Amino acid sequence: MRWNLFLRDRMPRYVTEILALALAYVFLKAFRVQTQLMMALVIIFLIANVIEEVWEYQRKKKFYDVLEQAVRELDCKYLLPEMLSKPDFYEGRLVYEALADTNKSMYEHVAECERTTREFREYIELWVHEAKIPVAGLLLMCHNKANEDDALLAEICRVDDAIENVLYYSRSENAQKDYCIKSVALNRIFSNVAVKYRRMLQLAGASLEAEHLDHMILTDAKWMEYILGQLMSNSLKYRDSKRPLSIRVWAEASDDRICLCFRDNGIGIGQSDLPRIFDKTFTGANGRKGSKSTGMGLYIVKNLCSRLGHAISAESEEGAYTQIRITFAKNDYAMLQNCNVR
């Protein structure tokens, strides 16, 4: 709060006081009051006003300086009322109470939005689990009839993948920690994924090679199975029709981390698209060709990896290969303390 702005804001009052003094002078003159007495009264009036203005400026300056600084420096503006003390002048109390009421209303609105989001998320998860029951039954029927209904099996697997995408998208977008990070065997996680996609790999005539996966990693097993399942699904979806699909998975260990590499010899990704493959709804040239992609799979994978604390990156050469690398930290005990079991 600056002195010149304060005086400018008070200018109407000063003009009114000067007019009042002039009018008083005319009346006092009419009653033949001595000039010395009138000057004494004017001086007393001016001194009293100067003292009042300085006092008024100082008590308002303290409040408004804190307000201006908080507005300028706070990243979370909604915390502004917490930075202020209730002032002792009327206008300041009005501002303080208005900010407090606004903040309270905002918190109530956020709480209502969180409640609505939570209820919607719970409904989505319930629907997903209900929808997966008949899908699991159909998958079992197809597996029991080997070499029959291959097209039906492929479509059911696509439906199953789509349902899982809905479930894990809901979980990845939610602020709550709906996961449990603990030490799990990497080869067991990958074995579960390989079993799930075994029939689809056979139908595609694909070969799968896995090596050096005998490591313990800190992650959520279910989330990691979904992540690897998405990579497997993408390999099947974007395989090159001119050659048999080959998928190779291996792990590289160092002193402080384990890196899981997932590589296929599919159609690859163009260099112009590569930096954006983890962006939401980005399909790229490959997705537009066959209208198969929603652009959500790798976005969900990236989001889940971020929540789990894993780094993920991709490299590719169009028409040759695509390789995804997921890096797990070793001995990250702090992450275990944040475990929130489903």
UniProtKB/TrEMBL annotation:
It is found in: Cell membrane. GO terms for cellular component: plasma membrane. The chain crosses the membrane at residues 12-31. It holds the Pfam family HATPase_c. Its EC number is 2.7.13.3. GO terms for biological process: cellular response to phosphate starvation. It is a multi-pass membrane protein. It catalyses: ATP + protein L-histidine = ADP + protein N-phospho-L-histidine. Coiled coil: none annotated. Signal peptide: none annotated. GO terms for molecular function: ATP binding; phosphoprotein phosphatase activity; phosphorelay sensor kinase activity. Keywords: ATP-binding, Cell membrane, Kinase, Membrane, Nucleotide-binding, Transferase, Transmembrane, Transmembrane helix, Two-component regulatory system. This is histidine kinase. It comes from Agathobacter ruminis.
